[in-house]
């Protein structure tokens, strides 16, 4: 790796600098999901599939970071816009003629 070591080291350092390490983030996430998991006992495991879809494709209405507003977690992770949620589920989106 000789000459590339510095580049790899600086890239790793940048990732570590931008990664938030706080238990409060996990506690916040757990408190938000706890209500959904109690419902799973009554509704079954298929409910978790619906919940995962909802949480991944629902767009953020507000955020501390402006670049996240109006985007879903899937869009933020992939960097690409996704289709309407009905089309993702396999339905054809009705478009009214102008």
Descriptive overview:
The protein is mainly α. It has a domain at 45-85. The chain has helices at 5-18, 23-43, 46-57, 73-78, 85-88. α2 packs across α3 (46-57). The longest helix is centred in the middle third of the chain and has 21 residues, at 23-43. The protein is extended, with a radius of gyration of 19 Å.
What attributes does this structure have?
single chain, mainly alpha, 58% helix, 98 residues, extended
Secondary structure layout plus pairing:
Elements lengths: L4 H14 L4 H21 L2 H12 L15 H6 L6 H4 L10
Helix pairs in contact: 2-3
Spans of at least 5 consecutive residues whose pLDDT stays below 50 are none
H and E string: HHHHH
- Residues in helix, %: 55-70%
Secondary-structure content class: mainly alpha
- Main sheet makeup: none
Could you tell me the strand content as a percent range?
under 5%
Span of the ends, CA to CA: 60 Å
Brief characterization of the structure:
The chain is mainly α and 98 residues long.
